[in-house]
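Researcher: I'm preparing a figure for a lab meeting and need a structural model of a single chain. I don't have an experimental structure, so a prediction will have to do for now. The sequence is pasted below. Please return the structure as tokens so I can convert it later.
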Amino acid sequence: MARIRFVWTRIWQMLSEHFVHVGSHENLNVAIFAIDSLRQLADKFLIKDEFASFNFQKDFLKPFEQIMLHNLATRTDIKEYIVMCITNICRTKTAFIKSGWSVIINIFTLAAQDSEEMLVSQSFYALKIAITEKFSLLEHNFVELVNCLNKYSMNSQFPKQAGEAQRLLLVCS
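Model: Understood. Here is the structure written out token by token.
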């Protein structure tokens, strides 16, 4: 962890591919272990301050999004665990997140389009808290945020979240 960011970036390029591969493993225990290890690393890296021109947070959170994409049609348990991890990161590390918001919002956008109630409601709740309490941190990702809220508002299977998403869209504008 004490290495310079340039070195970590090179190391992370290889590690992230491995995390995506193992996080999408057919054995649930293997996949959960990989995602949990990724979450632990994210917790450590988020505490480190990110400079304005760097996007290292975005890079090390990207495997969560890629694992989510690999499991969109098949593995609800994996998607729920990723959303739970990202929700926890939002709850506990909000003040430290900078470039990572774009990946977090992308994960919530994927969750917004799902048919699993737990996934949609948990991700929406985390996003709603981030918007209402820390909107200034999300302003740099305004377009992605509006797109994400739009996906929640268009999910007809969950009218409660759809209505709240429409109200949040009005607040953001």
